[in-house]
Amino acid sequence: MKKVILGLAIGLMASSAFADTNYIGGGFGRTAMADDAAPSFNVVIGHEIQVADQFGLALESGYTKFGDLTGTVDGTTGTLDMYGIPVKLKPTYHQDKFSVAPYVGATWLHGDLTGDLSGSGDDTFMTYGLDIGYDVDEVVTLKAGYNYIDADVEGYSLPMKTINAQVVFKI
Fold it and tell me: What HEC string does 90-131 produce?
């Protein structure tokens, strides 16, 4: 599944037949899950097609490394070390130097659990969020965002909520 999603994302972004804007970037954030929060970092690659004067439609993927999250669920304590590969569909509204982009997608997560229970695993979960951007110039955009991953592990609802800041470069 991971290879299929990554292949589709790279294939669409590399296509120059419909190319309007390709971009890369990265940033830092803070992710909360259960009763803990930890720093996270991400890199992104995207392709946006301009569909109307102020509207674009982007496909974005990347890599996110979540910090170690420690929590207790039903008396069981564990530390989860995770990373993820999201694929997001982002309709974007542009007004002057500002942009707003709600999105929906899927994130493949891999985690290693240590503590009272141990193990590792991976799964794909729905992702929702919102990015707000400011174009510093024709190449650089500063973004702030909120991301929600609707994770469910072994029957436990463990949503992941991330706030982040990014610098994105149009290429």
Answer: EEEEEECCEEEEEEEEEEEEEEEEEECCCEEEEEEEEEEEEE
Mean pLDDT rounded to a whole number for the chain: 88
Q: Is 40 helix (H, G, I), strand (E, B) or coil?
A: strand
* Contact indicator for 160, 31 with CB cutoff of 8 Å: yes
Give pLDDT tens digits for 102-131: 999 999 999 888 888 788 889 999 999 999
DSSP state of 138: S
Cβ–Cβ under 8 Å, residues 127 and 147: yes
pLDDT digits (tens, 9 = 90+) for 152-166: 877 777 889 999 999
- Exposed (0-12), middle (13-18) or buried (19+): which is 86, by Cβ within 10 Å? buried
Residue scoring higher pLDDT (84 or 18): 84
Is the CB of residue 162 less than 8 Å from the CB of residue 22?
no
Amino acid at 19: A
Q: What is the pTM of this model?
A: 0.83
